[in-house]
Amino acid sequence: MAGPIHYEVYVRKTAPAGWTLLIATEDRKHALETAEDQLRDRLAAAARVTKETLDPDTMEFNSLNILTIGAPEEKKKPKSVEAARPACSAPAELYTPHARALIGRVLEDWLKRQGATAFELLHRPDLAERLDASGVELQHAVQKVAVPESQASGQDLHSVVRHYQRLSEDAVARLLKAGRSGLFPSLEKRSIAELAQGLSGSADRAFVMGGVVAQALADRKGARDRLDGLMDMIDAAPPAGPARGLVVGAVEQIAAEMLAVRANLAEILGPSLDHGASLAAVVRMVAPREVERLIGLDSRMALMTPAVEGPAARLGARLAGGELPQLSASLARMVTRELASPRRLRPNDPVGEIDILRTLAMALTAAAGRLLTLEEVQNAFVDRSKSLVTPDFVGAYVRQCPTALSEAELLTRLCENVTGGANKRAAARWLSACVASVRLESEMRQSAPGGPSVSQKLLVLARLQRSVRAVQLGELDERQISTAIGALGGTLEADAGLLAQIGRAQATPVQKLTALMKMTNGETAPLGPAADRARAEAVKMLRIPEVRQAADADTEASAALQSLMQAARLKV
């Protein structure tokens, strides 16, 4: 009988790149959708899904390719099998950051059930013994490492599998031996500061201190409690010197791996926060000074950026002091990775997604240079902006708009908040289609009892046109959209005969001239046909000597009126 079945998704980032494992899941549909999403979102050049079936007799997995999409794999010259060697050859190499990251991925589910990190697995004999006893879990992890490495290097798959089986056995044996020999002393009778001082100069001090810190967390349950324990150890560490660095180094590595897990981060920051708010809280934790300055300048930032409390606040104080630079950089890069991912920040609130994205942009830009380069921040928001101009997002974004005018205003705000030339152009196309639509023209030309007057409508269009000019679209897009708004304003003015009404109004020549000049300047009507006709009428009035004398003699005329009259005189 066939054993357990799971599905693995491999991707190639570029056409010549090798296959790398993305996820492993027991859900066939999820695996196929993930592969298709990678190509649709342009996160990979090709994707492949394999079905892995465990043979109960040999305890090995049989692979069956069920989907391959994307760019065809380029043929490469076969590599020399003799020259190739496994990525890890000795147990000590499993402790490198790259190896720990790989262990964390292939054993993600098992580590989550144990409430531990890859660093703790490599430093806790009890965890290593538990994993070794599981059999299938360890075999499965070895298979997930060996298959892509064999394909990339040209080595025989079974040889690579046997190598990593022996390597895992050696690593477990080494760790169990260290535990039995009492290499990891308990903190019950000695303080961590004393242990750190005693380890100074020892060749395996980092391994021993890692075991001490990992063992001290064994009885703590939940991410908040575990982070609290890590902060307690930093508080109890030696005040300075290599001994303190020994403690802080071990704590920092565990904290970085623990906070890289979404479930842990949600528990530490608060389960009620959505994805966008969680990222904002992380930014506030790693850059508290910059966020506080922004809150001082704009009180709305405080509403958009959740406060951090408890263990997260303790960690934030350490990060603000520059004591955990690697963790700060790791969390900042985690935020940029999430921004570049297709995951929505606020799935049910597109308008709120724009708000939280703007908040994150301000905070990360303020912290650029200390945590990330400005280029990294900009690239992250360019990637995120791609998801804001897709039909699905724009459709959800404007779905609740009661009128085409409110839709145009929202789309103008969208244009303001996306970055990147291609994204700006895509957003401009949505706005251009809206302002040039028959729906908007029909709504604006309708007149209902108690509804807005033509003057009010022209004022709204003028404000919309100024907003479009302020969002820094491309010259062609801006001109096209502004022209469409101006043409609509001209139609409204012509329908109502507004200029003729101004001419017949019971008002002084200066008051009429003021009204015309405001239309000419784009204050009360959009620039375009209506403004041009208002300018022509103003010029006619200024040619009348009595009107010009009255305007010059009017002491109550504002400075704005005088400047407008001067501009009109230049046209005469």
How would you summarize what this structure contains?
With 572 residues, the chain is an alpha+beta fold.
Could you explain how this protein is built, in words?
With 572 residues, this protein is of the alpha+beta class. The chain folds into 4 domains: 5-70; 91-259, no CATH class; 274-453, no CATH class; 497-571, no CATH class. It is 65% helix and 6% strand. It has 30 helices and 4 strands. The chain has helices at residues 28-40, 97-106, 108-114, 118-121, 125-134, 136-153, 157-180, 192-199, 205-216, 223-236, 242-259, 262-269, 275-286, 288-297, 300-304, 311-320, 325-340, 350-367, 374-388, 391-397, 404-417, 421-435, 438-445, 454-470, 475-496, 498-504, 509-520, 529-542, 545-553, 559-571, and strands spanning 5-12, 20-25, 46-55, 60-70. It has a 4-stranded antiparallel sheet, with helices on both faces. Helix 13 packs parallel to helix 18 (350-367), helix 18 (350-367) runs antiparallel to helix 19 and helix 21 (404-417) packs parallel to helix 24 (454-470). It starts with a strand and ends with a helix. The model is unreliable at 79-83 and 568-572 (pLDDT under 50).
Layout of SSEs?
Elements: E1 5-12, E2 20-25, H1 28-40, E3 46-55, E4 60-70, H2 97-106, H3 108-114, H4 118-121, H5 125-134, H6 136-153, H7 157-180, H8 192-199, H9 205-216, H10 223-236, H11 242-259, H12 262-269, H13 275-286, H14 288-297, H15 300-304, H16 311-320, H17 325-340, H18 350-367, H19 374-388, H20 391-397, H21 404-417, H22 421-435, H23 438-445, H24 454-470, H25 475-496, H26 498-504, H27 509-520, H28 529-542, H29 545-553, H30 559-571
Antiparallel strand pairs: 1-2, 1-3, 3-4
Helix pairs in contact: 5-7, 6-7, 8-9, 8-11, 9-11, 10-11, 10-16, 11-17, 13-14, 13-17, 13-18, 17-19, 18-19, 21-22, 21-24, 22-25, 24-25, 27-28, 27-30, 28-30
